[in-house]
């Protein structure tokens, strides 16, 4: 019974999320692109370096270290939450 309630709640939550994202996409379609998107591989590597590697933040070592701890802590919480959802669905 708990799994069914959890699945229903999860589906409602995902539905609200998808509805909101679709609404935002409709608003963005009214705008013009700011710049053409080129070199996707290069941009993806830069995203990995800056976002996940925290390269820009480490220019200031002490602040960068603590910022990275917070960032990676949230990443750990994210994976823990995903595991809890899988546990909730599988029992």
CA(first)-CA(last) distance = 10 Å
| Global outline | flat
Rg on CA atoms, Å: 19 Å
- Low-confidence parts: none
Compressed to H and E, one letter per element, the order equals HHH
What is the domain total for the residues? 2
Strand content: under 5%
The helicity comes to over 70%
- The helix count comes to 3
Backbone structural class? mainly alpha
Kindly state the number of beta strands.
0
Instruction: Compute the average pLDDT.
Output: 91
The biggest sheet, with number of strands, parallel, antiparallel or mixed sense and barrel status, is: none
Quick recap:
The protein contains three helices and no strands.
Structure explained in plain terms:
The longest helix has 30 residues, at 61-90. It contains three helices and no strands. The chain has helices at 2-29, 40-52, 61-90. It is mostly helical and 91 residues long. The chain folds into two domains: 1-31; 40-91, no CATH class.
How is this fold's topology laid out?
Blueprint lengths: L1 H28 L10 H13 L8 H30 L1
Task: Please tag this protein with its features.
single chain; 91 residues; mainly alpha
